[in-house]
Design goal:
Layout: H1 10-23, H2 33-44, E1 55-56, H3 65-80, E2 86-92, E3 97-101, H4 105-113, E4 120-121, H5 124-127, H6 133-138, E5 142-145, E6 157-165, E7 172-181, H7 189-225, E8 230-233, E9 238-240, H8 242-247, H9 250-265, E10 271-275, E11 281-290, E12 296-305, H10 331-344, E13 350-353, H11 360-371, E14 377-381, E15 404-409, H12 419-431, E16 436-442, H13 449-452, E17 457-460, H14 471-480, E18 489-490, H15 492-499, H16 506-520, E19 525-526, H17 545-560, H18 565-572, H19 576-586
Parallel strand pairs: 13-16, 13-17, 14-15, 15-16, 18-19
Antiparallel strand pairs: 1-4, 2-3, 2-7, 5-6, 6-7, 8-9, 8-12, 10-11, 11-12
Helix pairs in contact: 3-7, 9-10, 14-15, 14-16, 17-18, 18-19
């Protein structure tokens, strides 16, 4: 539900912001609870308050279903706002700008200055409180006015963001944002952005129905013409035939779908080899399925299971013993670790890619400990402009030991003014491969060509939502390593709640959640009530997607209204009796 634009006392908010930054507290009601909570998250992430630090994530993909479905609504919105000093911004689910339009040249110059432009990311955990990233964190429309922004560089702007939710999955697939100068903010903008976001969601539903019908037709043909296991997958649906149900485990399904996604994202050939449960190899053929709009809406996967004796020596095998400190037993994770181990041992240079917080640098360190435990390793943070690029990389190994290791963290975030210098330096590193092994990490979709050609192998690590079966094991491991005067552990119910979480911040977010829970825990057992409130929304039973959405909305409304059920019901458009019944049904006991 969209909240109407409320009058904000800019002077009072600016004063409160200054007070918060100096004392980490606010003694005024001038700041909305959602904004204050976001400030605290931004401060916890140690984000800059003086400047807008925006990361370039790569050229946006304009051929996605989101862009295709949003185009008509964006064109209509552009016509409506043609005479207004307002910009229209579309982002993906991570807050990376996909498109931006405005008829106001002065505003566009301002947006260029702060890099609110295609390819740049405005996630809250990177930029701080803003109408894009914070709305995505909250999962509902939000406006951020003037000094409510965490970064001073955004304080003269007003941002109105509304997540675009896919009607079938009920997951955000993007966000629509209207940004203008704060002096030009108007009370009709929140309703306009929310209404347009809903119309895009409806268009996604229509397109999804067309895609699913096409996928179903191809799936039926594949099942009639072949005996092997067949899977049909899209962003919304997974179908498996009887052979797949009998011969493949749920872990096999997870490994196949994740590996296929990796091959398609990297543009590699539409076939893949995957190790199933027990190490049995299988060849997967991948056929894209297009809808009436000529858009790929899903894939037909035919799995040919080979006898174990045909496994070639050149193919990566799951290591018999885990890497030190690397946790996870899901097939998709073990396969990627095996690929990384094989590639790192070949001295060709290894590039580990994937989202922030999945453990790329941690894995690189573990690879060094496994392959070269007696040698020296160097870790360089390539984001830092002050990072010194060593000219002396290694020594010849006369004692038969492995080469030393150089780990380049965040290689995709090298400052623009150092790109050429780093590329030349990598040429020198490449020339000394016999003296040093190189592993680099990259969170962007693609590393620039002038750097990527230095690496002989690339391994994309799966996000936590692709290895759900590992969450409980990870939680146990991370809890055991929390510095504390006592040995901590998680209660079984706590582990079940964590396993049902979404974890957009991946392992790093899970670690932060457990550390915060440990601060609230007086004993040795972390129970559900010790978890931060946003992680207790899972409830007492496994809810349907629609129930989960309603439950989260109720909790957010209660938090925004200091636990007042009457005001929360009014904000949600519910009657008082309805919200009381929902609170009891979902086991909401935060207030």
């Amino acid at each position: 539900m969209t909240s109407p634009l409320q009058t904000v006392d800019e002077h009072a908010v600016a004063h409160a912001r200054a007070e918060f930054l100096s004392e980490a507290s606010v003694a005024t009601t001038a700041v909305r609870d959602q904004i204050l909570t976001s400030w605290r998250r931004s401060q916890l992430a140690e984000l800059s308050v003086d400047r807008v630090d925006v990361r370039y994530a790569g050229d946006p993909d304009l051929g996605t279903p989101l862009m295709q479905c949003a185009s008509p609504a964006l064109q209509q919105l552009s016509s409506q706002l043609a005479a207004s000093p307002v910009s229209i911004v579309l982002t993906d689910a991570a807050g990376t700008v996909v498109s931006r339009t405005s008829s106001d040249r002065g505003l566009l110059r301002k947006l260029d200055e702060i890099r609110l432009a295609p390819g740049f990311t405005y996630a809250e955990d990177e930029v701080g409180t803003n109408g894009i990233g914070t709305a995505l964190v909250l999962g509902h429309p939000l406006y951020v006015l003037g000094s409510e922004h965490y970064s001073e560089g955004l304080n003269d702007l007003a941002c109105f963001g509304a997540p675009i939710v896919h009607p079938l999955t009920e997951e955000p697939v993007g966000l629509l944002d209207l940004t203008c100068r704060n002096v030009h903010s108007d009370r009709w903008l929140p309703a306009l952005v929310a209404q347009t976001a809903r119309s895009i969601s409806q268009e996604l539903l229509t397109a999804s129905c067309e895609r699913e019908l096409a996928l179903l037709a191809h799936y039926q043909v594949a099942c009639r013409s072949t005996n092997p296991p067949v899977l049909a997958v899209s962003t919304d649906v997974t179908m498996i035939n009887g052979t797949a149900r009998l011969s493949l485990t749920p872990s096999d399904h997870e490994a196949i779908v994740a590996l296929v996604g990796d091959r398609l994202r990297s543009g590699r050939a539409r076939s893949a080899t995957v190790a199933l449960s027990g190490g049995t190899p299988a060849h997967v053929s991948i056929t894209p399925v297009k809808d009436k709009r000529d858009q790929v809406g899903g894939y037909i996967l035919v799995v040919h299971i080979n006898p174990p004796t045909v496994v070639r020596r050149s193919e990566p095998h799951v290591p018999s013993t885990p890497l030190p400190g690397v946790v996870g037993s899901s097939p998709v994770w073990r396969n990627r670790v095996a690929e990384a181990l094989s590639a790192f041992g070949s001295d060709g240079g290894l590039l580990l890619t994937g989202e922030h917080g999945i453990g790329k640098t941690h894995l690189a360190k573990a690879l060094h400990r496994r392959l070269a435990p007696g040698r020296f390793s160097t870790l360089l943070d390539m984001r830092d402009p002050a990072t010194v690029l060593p000219s002396h990389l290694g020594e010849p190994s006369d004692d038969g030991l492995e080469p030393s290791t150089l780990i380049l963290a965040h290689l995709d975030e090298v400052p623009w003014n150092r790109r050429r210098e780093v590329s030349r330096w990598l040429d020198g590193v490449r020339a000394e491969r016999g003296l040093v092994r190189v592993a680099a990490t990259c969170s962007s979709a693609q590393l620039p060509e002038d750097m990527s050609h230095h690496f002989g192998a690339e391994v994309r690590l799966p996000v936590l939502r692709e290895r759900v079966s590992d969450i409980e094991e990870l939680a146990v491991h991370l809890t055991e390593r929390i510095p504390a005067a006592r040995r901590l552990r998680c209660a079984d119910e706590t582990l079940r709640i964590l396993a049902r979480g979404r974890w957009p911040g991946n392992v790093a977010e899970l670690r932060d959640c457990l550390r915060r829970a440990a601060l609230s825990c007086d004993g040795e057992v972390i129970r559900p009530e010790h978890l931060p409130s946003q992680y207790r929304k899972v409830g007492r039973r496994l809810l349907s997607p629609l129930e989960s959405l309603e439950r989260d909305a109720i909790i957010d409304a209660l938090e925004a209204n200091d636990g007042d059920k009457v005001h929360a019901a009014a904000a949600l458009g519910m009657s008082r009796s309805t919200i009381y019944r929902r609170i009891q049904r979902y086991g909401i006991d935060l207030f």
